[in-house]
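Incident log, structure service

09:12 report received: a user says their structure output differs between two submissions of the same chain.
09:20 pulled the input from the user's history:
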Amino acid sequence: MLLQIRVLVETETEEGDRVRLEAFTLVVNAHGGLLEMSLKVPKGHRMSLSNPTLGVRESCRVIASRSSQGGVFAIAFEFDSPAPQFWPIAFPPIDWSLVKAED
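09:34 re-ran on a clean worker, output below:
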């Protein structure tokens, strides 16, 4: 789902320094999403994301990283466990099925 919200990222640089920075999501789902941030991180990198609006925090890992526009990086991430409650939206239940239209 396309959703742009502010999240806080806590992680370590390649030098081992702890950093906290602001990022913005582009796409989200119950398993993770895609965000833009100013720090380049490699695939497999561990991060912690906080949603300040909802007061929730989840750990995740980077599954892809690439340069984006304006000196920011597009970071695809996956939560350690599905976390639909992290986003300010309601996801359909897992057992939801499509109903065939009547003719």
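09:41 both user submissions now match this output. Likely a transient worker issue. Closing.
09:42 reviewer note: The chain has no helices and six strands. The chain has one domain: 6-86.
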